Amino acid sequence: MNVFIIPSWYPSKDNPHTGIFNKEQSVAMAEFNPDSNFAISTWGTHENDLLILGEDNFKNILKFLKYPSKKATARKLGGNITEYYTPAFTWTRKFLQGNMENIIKSNEKHLMAFQNEVGKADIIHAHSAHPGGWVAMLLAKKHAIPYVITEHMAPFPFRSFLGKGNTLDKYLARPFQCAAANVVVSPQQKQNLMKWGIPNLRYIPNLTDESFFYPKPKGSSNFVFLTLAVLEDRKGIIYLLKAFKSILTGYPSARLVIGGDGPQREIYQALASDLEIAANVQWLGTLSRQQAANEMQNCDAFVLPSFHENLPLVLLEASACGKPLIGTYCGGSESIINEKNGLVVEPGNVDALYGAMEDMYLNHQRYNAEEIRADFISKYSRPVVCKQIMDLYKQVIAQHKYTL
């Protein structure tokens, strides 16, 4: 089987964690299906030099001047998977459709190169309906290849994709309508997309590398709450800081470790000082994957107080390390957390979050690391999820051949 993958978000030097799940899933699929061939088609979706913003006219000129120095590449990520890259600018859809014509050309160039190497592609897998799904739809029609979409947008839909009368913009609606299957990563996401009339929905969760995230003896003796997130409003960090202040009132040796960076970092650090908890809060900044795994292995509980999520990888990674979880009813966290691995509260509720954190602190022995990891392995490990994806590919390809 030959699989052509179009991720709408993909890691770059500027944003190494953006869309990392797309890359990791693709590499895992190649590893667990050695008789198939895989291609990842990228055009620099999250490279700062390729993002044209209306308010940055001087910087935009510099970006256009730098563009000729950017070269297309094709590199092997494994024996049966190739990552193709041809740079293309991205800008607002309000002007020349966001440079969609050139983005499509980059992807078609990659499709031709892939097919020249391994033969005709059997299926296209787009991650998110825009822009990847839109590109997949047009390439699928032109080259008679079926395609599927895995949607990752949260909250769905972004306001910029709403048209007149609170309807979906064509850039979302049409790719979904034409896809052979639309994959959702959580049951809650499936319910939401059903409300928008999106057809052919299939639930397949995201995966996490169980060989990289695993339990390890904890180093420190103090109780450590850990969160890893982009430091912005939708992640609920303000409420976490306020809840942690209440924790310190009764349990002054507790620590809160915050990994990640973002536009609100200085505001949150100032709030920690105002709350007089700064001495017990550690700010780690952006972490590598290895650093993230180390922090998860060295915490006592992982907390994610978000307002919107689909299926947050950080919760899967923490559970792979055998750690109990505290999450919120935010669209995906509640499908991961159960009575054996943690607690779920309403987002934005400081008292409820404090109550869950105190319960976790006092009753930590209630959670068994081996049971938490076993639950993760059965649902979200690479072999389990990769089989579900491959089974979907086979069904779609068989149906496509039947209808030809």
Number of domains: 2
Overall geometry: globular
Q: What does the oligomeric state look like here?
A: single chain
Helix/sheet category: alpha/beta
Order of SSEs: EHEHEEHEHEHEHEEHEHEHEHEHEHHH
Task: Name the poorly predicted regions.
Answer: none
- Label the CATH architecture of the largest domain: 3-Layer(aba) Sandwich
| Count of separate DSSP helical elements | 14
Rg from C-alpha positions?
A: 22 Å
Helicity range of the residues? 40-55%
Count of strand segments = 14
> Tell me about the biggest sheet?
8 strands, mixed
Please state the average pLDDT score: 94
CATH-assigned homologous superfamily of the largest domain? Glycogen Phosphorylase B
Separation of the first and last Cα atoms: 18 Å
CATH fold topology of the largest domain: Rossmann fold
Strand content: 15-25%
Write the layout of secondary structure elements.
Layout: E1 2-7, H1 20-32, E2 37-42, H2 57-66, E3 73-78, E4 81-85, H3 96-118, E5 123-127, H4 129-143, E6 147-150, H5 170-178, E7 181-184, H6 187-195, E8 201-203, E9 224-228, H7 237-250, E10 255-259, H8 265-274, E11 281-285, H9 289-297, E12 301-303, H10 313-320, E13 325-328, H11 333-336, E14 342-345, H12 350-362, H13 369-380, H14 382-403
Parallel strand pairs: 1-2, 1-5, 2-4, 5-6, 6-7, 7-8, 9-10, 9-12, 10-11, 12-13, 13-14
Antiparallel strand pairs: 3-4
